Each structure stands twice: as structure tokens, then as C-alpha cells.
Amino acid sequence: MSADPLALTRYLIRCPSVTPAEGGALAFLERTLQAAGFTVYRITFSEPGAADVENLYARIGTASPHLTFAGHTDVVPPGNEAAWAHPPFAGEVAGGELYGRGAVDMKGGIGCALAAVLDHLAAHGGKPKGSISFLVTGDEEGIAVNGTPKLLHWVADRGEKFDHCILGEPSNAEELGDTIKIGRRGSLNGHLIVSGKQGHVAYPDRADNPIRGLVTLVAALQAAPLDHGSALFPPSHLEFTSVDVGNKTVNLIPGEARARFNIRFNDKHTLDSLKALIEQRAEKAAAGKINFAFQWEPSNAGVFAVKPGPFTDLVAEAIAKITGRKPELSTSGGTSDARFITQYCPVVEFGLVGQTMHQVNERVAVADLRALTAIYRAIIDRYFE
Ligand SMILES: [Zn+2]
């Protein structure tokens, strides 16, 4: 008898695990994985000023290759519960769809991975030819300080290594099988501050208006493209998000003017090279006549990508076999825990269809749960062939 991804996902949805609550979801995974022969660790991480968060690491096998399924059991709040057609933590099925908070983001992804792994083990005498693990955090939707980064570090400290990771976030845009995410642009926030000299508007010769300098620099930084894109990424993009002087007085030239911007950047840059490039361009535009400085906000979102190759081929072939679709290898979208996992091993994101994630009436087609389980199963079978 094969494992049922619908029953497993339903059970997880019925655990009200709004970040940072565990809600019984990790306890359920612990019981289920232990019964299948996994060694299971429940690890709680703390940080001053943040809520304690429970995480889970479970592994079966000691040999390589080591394939890990990563994900999170925490969910965003349900919002207005009265607006849901079916209660957000009931796991009801209607019209062929399973309703509930986390149905696609990403208790469904975990339910499917779990079903696929249990089936693979059952078909192979209870043991993989290498190692399979689950890396599950309860802190993805929150500030993520007590989740995946610390859990990865904890596993590495034990001397364990991952060879490949599948992160089961809802990667598909419209239909199951349309998209695998293989990386992400980096994100950098900066402030540009131009200093002048405050004075009376009637006597501009005695003042130095920083707004003139700011306008020059803002225009210069938007003038030329940062690059023309790369093989895996679209062109990098700088967007100003605010211009602030804060001057309420009509006859006063202000002493300082500021602008704020964000850059989404591709693999032609690193955080450091990008800062240097922006500072250089401002330097050139200022031509020694504008007194300016940059303040950079700390960023843990560098650019990354898995090079298309045998592992992405294996995943794409499994998707094609089950759905008949040829997935796009995409680097679009907001951040995910893949940005941390990539520091330990190649990671691809493939899960359900993201359309209803974080919305009222979040739901997944039961057929998609079965198809995703079959895809994961095909990946595992091939991986350990
Ligand atoms: Zn998610």
C-alpha cells in the first residue's frame, strides 16, 4: 500500500503552526519518520529579541550520495477566517481541492516529499542506496533567524554533508511542472546622502543646495544599465524608492537631501563589486563638485544559481515524465531559504503551484498532490539508481 500525500498534507494543515508555533506539525513528522527508520532530531534555536523556534532534521542512511528535502511547516496567519469557504485549519476537500493555510506553501510540498520517500523506502527494503534527509524549519515565514541558517550550521557541525537539495516551495506559476527555480537575483538596499549648506532662498550664493546635487546623482545612476543580463538572469535593475529632504520651510535651502534605492542584481556582480560600481559612477557624475556619501544596508541576499547540468536535468526529466511539460529554469521571484542552502550544496526549488499562497482560500488540487508525489518519487528512484 502506498503512502497517501492527501492524508499526510491534511494532517499537517490541521496543525495550526502559524510562525513561530510548532502546532504539532513537527511532532507528526517526527513520529512518521521515526517509524520509517529515520534518526530524528528536534532542535530549538533561540536568539535574544526573537521567539524560540523548533526545527527538525531527520536522516536515514549514512552513505553518499545524500539527498535532502528542505522546507518549512510554519505558515502565515489565516487573515479573516470568516472569508474562507472552508476553515483554514480543517483540511477539507471540496471540488477536488484541499483547502487550508499551508496547502501549497508548503505543507503540501512536505506531504508529497514524505509520501514519495516512504514509498521509495518501502520498494527498496526500507533503506536508500545513499542517504535521504528532511531539513524542516518552523521559521521561514517569520524573520528566519532561528530557522534554516542555524539548522544548516548545526548539521555541518556534526560533520554531515549534503550532495543535493530539493526545496519544496511552490515554484510553479500556473500549472504543475511549468517552473523549476534554480537561483535568485541578489537584493541590495542603499541610501544616497548629499550634504550642502543650509541658507536663505533669497541668498543662494551664501548656501549650497544639496537638492541640485541629489538630482544630478539620481539621474546619473539611472542613466546607464548596470549590465545586459547573463545566461541565467535578466539585466540587473536599480530603482529609487524614496527621495527625502524633510524641509517644511518655504524660504529655507536645506542642508541635506537623501534618496533610497534597491538593486536587484544578477550573477555579473557580487554585493561588494556592485557597491564599488555604484560609488564609481556617482564619483564620476559628481566630478568633485557634489559632497555625497552612500550608506549600505546589510544584505544576506546575494545572487546565486545552480548551473544547469545532470541534477537539473534529472529533475526536469522527472517532471516531463509525469506532467508532459518541459519546465522553465527560472531565477525570478522573492527570496526563499534556498539562499542559505546554496552555501552548502546545489539546491533547486520545485513544489506545487503558487497561485493561492498566502491568500484566503489557499488550496491545492488533489490531483496535483498525487502528481507531485509521483515526480518526487521519480527523482528519488533515478537519483539512487
Ligand atoms: Zn514557503
Short description, anyone?
This protein has 385 residues and is of the alpha+beta class. The protein has nine helices and 19 strands. The strands form six sheets. It has a six-stranded mixed sheet, with helices on both faces. Strands 12-14-10-15 form a four-stranded antiparallel sheet, covered by helices on one side.
Provide the structure class.
alpha+beta
Write out the distinct hetero groups bound to the structure. zinc ion
Strand order of the largest sheet: 1-2-6-3-7-18
Elements, N to C (H/E): HHEEEEEHEHEEEEEHEEEHEEHEHEEH
The radius of gyration over CA amounts to 25 Å
What is the 3D shape? elongated
- For the termini, the CA-CA separation is 22 Å
Structure overview:
It is built from 9 helices and 19 strands. The chain is α+β, with helices and mostly antiparallel strands and 385 residues long. A 6-stranded mixed β-sheet has the order 1-2-6-3-7-18, with helices on both faces. Strands 12-14-10-15 form a 4-stranded antiparallel β-sheet, covered by helices on one side. A hairpin with a 2-residue loop joins strand 1 and strand 2. The longest helix is centred in the C-terminal third of the chain and has 18 residues, at 366-383. The protein is elongated and about 85 Å long. The mean pLDDT is 96. The structure holds zinc ion. Zinc ion (ZN) binds at residues 72, 105-106, 140, 169.
